Amino acid sequence: MDSLPDPAQYLLRIDDLCPTVHPERWSRIREVIREFGLRPILAVVPDNQDESLAKSRYDARFWEEVRILQREGATIAMHGYRHVCSLRSRSLIPLHRHSEFAGRSLKTQREFIRSGLAVLRNEALEPRLFVAPRHSFDRMTLRALCQEGLPYLSDGLARVPFKRDGVTWIPQQLWSPASRAKGLWTLCIHPNSAGPRRLAELRGFVEKYRDQFTSFNDVIANFSAGKLSLGERMNARIALWRIMRRVRRNRTAG
Fold it and tell me: What pTM did the predictor assign?
């Protein structure tokens, strides 16, 4: 049986970080991180080519800001390579129809990962795990991560870390602040779309549950990731079904 943390523990993950991130919203999030001493996962796009992430002019100070947060305890994640999801393919987490990684050859995926790691390391960053754009990746991605020495992934809808195909999955299940009774829950915030209301919700949530926030380093030190129990696999499938139903409803409405 999987042992669920009681009370719940929370991880904060910030996505779509690159030198053209929305400056004011990113600044507000940094303020929350520092005010409450959080040690979040910072999902950084190594070589952004996605025009939808260009919310400002290129800010050369971005890399130094991330380096400082890393020194203060944040964990760096490689958020894809260029964040261009041009390939229509099926993912292990089937929430989106297009991908940067899923459907590509092992050779290409290894090249993407190797190139992305080189960019981040050249900026004196130490990436510890992978975050796939649009949650879209396949088994070749998992093989490529292992072969390139990055065997940690932030994704999946379980309530505890687990291991699959040689990769340790740190689950990510929340896109807005929400309290939970038990388990490990990763809250993902996108600065480019996080308006004043969402940022206020984030601050209020962190203030209320500050003692229950953890970090990537503490998670991998305190959890023994293995195969999920049948009950936890069923719980994750139900969670995925609910999310996919909501995604389909939104597509139909759009």
Answer: 0.94
